[in-house]
Specification:
The protein is mostly helical. 71% of the residues lie in helices and 0% in strands.
Length: 177
């Protein structure tokens, strides 16, 4: 049987076309599956990122709230009220009105940047003790645990409360001796 020479190339072309079509469908299905899988992974990553971003914002807000310094109400310094309550002339931001702080300790604090009643009221006991410790053994024996509270009273102009508290502190010292 003689097959014309034209039929063989046509038959081979049709067979190759069919095979190419089938392989293309198989490959395209795999590409679609891969694409869908990658899209699902991307969606999961976006969801995690959104969750992490909201957690970061929440933590930043908590940190800001924790570190937020509450500034007490500012009351103008009235020397006459202070002098009447404490029984002596008072200068604004004189750290020596705090029971336990004398001229030398005041100088240490001023050198360390604590120059006002407000500064002193916001300083931690640990920071004050570190300044005293750095000043030498003559200063390290002092106990600054009440100094910030006393300074806050002075800063807020609560002279009567400051005087009463200082009297109670002095009373406790005399009981110990």
């Amino acid at each position: 049987m003689n097959v014309p020479y034209v039929v063989i190339p046509i038959a081979l072309g049709v067979i190759c076309g069919i095979l190419g079509y089938i392989l293309g469908k198989i490959t395209f299905k795999n590409d679609n599956a891969l694409s869908a899988s990658l899209q699902a992974d991307l969606d999961v990553c976006k969801a995690h990122t959104k969750n992490l971003n909201s957690r970061i914002l929440k933590l930043e807000a908590e940190l800001a709230a924790k570190n937020k310094t509450v500034i007490p109400e500012i009351i103008p310094f009235e020397p006459a009220l202070a002098s009447n309550a404490l029984g002596k002339k008072i200068k604004e931001n004189d750290l020596k009105i705090v029971e336990g702080i004398g001229p030398k300790i005041e100088s240490l604090f001023i050198d360390a940047g604590i120059k006002t009643w407000q500064n002193l009221s916001q300083a931690s006991t640990e920071k004050l003790q570190a300044i005293l410790d750095a000043g030498g053994e003559n200063y390290a024996m002092h106990n600054p645990s009440t100094w910030a509270k006393q300074a806050l009273m002075a800063y807020q102009g609560k002279w009567k409360e400051l005087k009463d508290w200082q009297d109670s502190l002095l009373g406790e010292k005399s009981k110990r001796h």
